[in-house]
Amino acid sequence: MYHKPVLRDEAVHNLVTDPNGIYVDGTLGGGGHAALILKKMGPDGRLIGIDQDQDALNFAEKRLAGDPRVTLVKGNFGYLDVLLSRDVHGSIHGILLDLGVSSHQIDEPARGFSFQKDGPLDMRMGDLQTLTASAIINEYSYEALRDLFYLYGEERESARIARSIIAARPMETTGELRKAVMEVVPERFTNKSLARIFQALRIEVNSELSMLKRVLEKGVDMLADRGRMVVITYHSLEDRLCKNFFRYGNFEGKPVKDFYGNDIRPMESLFKRVITPSEEETAENPRARSAKLRAAYRINDTASGHGHKKNQDGGA
Ligand SMILES: C[S@@+](CC[C@H](N)C(=O)[O-])C[C@H]1O[C@@H](n2cnc3c(N)ncnc32)[C@H](O)[C@@H]1O
């Protein structure tokens, strides 16, 4: 199987409000979520599927083949505003983001995402970007590596691991990286540390956090009034950005008030708590275990007096 969709029913249930609306799946992958969105859609609905990975697009194209309601686009969802034609700006009913990598990407050793399999230090989600894990591992300074592992991997042993990597340079494979990490981390912690180091590298290679921030900000402007965003995250750094943006309209989590004390924010969360997978789902699909789903809708600024600043200032 290419990829088993996580929280599929919950995501699609919260996404599709108008069967004949326009929907964007910004992380098409194997098309698992997309297939269910199409099922819920009527004959006049439209689905735009985006992925930066040509493998994913090839697979999804076969799966969704011939459905006239589907348009596939290769690109980074961070540039949503540029990828989507102007006629849909401001009319999208729902945007789905199921972040991170697919099982297909992890399981393919040549992509370099897995610390369990030997492969090149690549970790690019697609061929649109040039930075690879190899450039980071072999060229970043000690301080840059240490801070990267600490910030993006939340790894406490980041300094020792960075030193070990520098001593083992040059490095070409995930196996060599694994060895350098294992040399300085006690055996019982190695899998957790490896997961954190690989996560940090993947985030850096693919500019994951800056692209997420960009898609959240740009995505709001693409939505119709009350249009929804449904985001599935897999680690706390992504989830925090999403939570803060939905609650406060910024990534720092600072409430912004207007003159009358009303919150100024672009979106309203659909529910207070996050949705997480059931025990049955995680038992069946261990990759779902860290998933958190958040959903919000664009606030009608003119009716409520709330909403994002740009519109209150009379902008587009
Ligand atoms: C977790 S998988 C999505 C799986 C999909 N929901 C399914 O049901 O098969 C994430 C997919 O999003 C893509 N992706 C991640 N970040 C992206 C970005 N910034 N722009 C475009 N595609 C991205 C990855 O290449 C991968 O194929």
Description:
The structure is a single chain. This protein is an alpha/beta fold and 316 residues long. The chain folds into two domains: 8-103 and 208-312, Vaccinia Virus protein VP39 (Rossmann fold, 3-Layer(aba) Sandwich); 130-205, Putative methyltransferase TM0872, insert domain (DNA polymerase, domain 1), CATH 1.10.150. The chain is 43% helix and 14% strand. The protein has 15 helices and seven strands. Strands 3-2-1-4-5-7-6 form a seven-stranded mixed sheet, sandwiched between helices. Helix 1 (8-15) packs across helix 2 (32-40), helix 7 (142-153) crosses helix 10 (190-205) and helix 11 runs parallel beside helix 12 (236-248). The chain is globular, with a radius of gyration of 20 Å. It starts with 7 loop residues before the first helix and ends with a helix. The structure holds S-adenosylmethionine. S-adenosylmethionine binds at residues 3, 5, 27, 29-33, 50-53, 56, 76-78, 98, 100-102, 125, 211.
Key features?
single chain, alpha/beta, 7 strands, 2 domains, 7-stranded mixed β-sheet, Rossmann fold, globular, binds S-adenosylmethionine, 316 residues, DNA polymerase, domain 1, disordered C terminus
Note the beta-strand portion. Answer: 5-15%
User: Given the helix and strand composition, which structural class is it?
Assistant: alpha/beta
Structural domain count: 2
Q: What's the CATH H-level superfamily name of the largest domain?
A: Vaccinia Virus protein VP39
CATH secondary-structure class of the largest domain = Alpha Beta
Largest sheet: 7 strands, mixed
SSE pattern = HEHEHEHEHHHHHHHEHEHEHH
Question: Total helix count?
Answer: 15
Low-confidence segments: 302-316
Helix content: 40-55%
What is the count of β-strands? 7
The CATH topology of the largest domain is Rossmann fold
Coarse morphology: globular
State the end-to-end CA separation.
Answer: 43 Å
Strand order of the largest sheet: 3-2-1-4-5-7-6
CATH architecture of the largest domain: 3-Layer(aba) Sandwich
Mean pLDDT: 94
Present as ligands are: S-adenosylmethionine
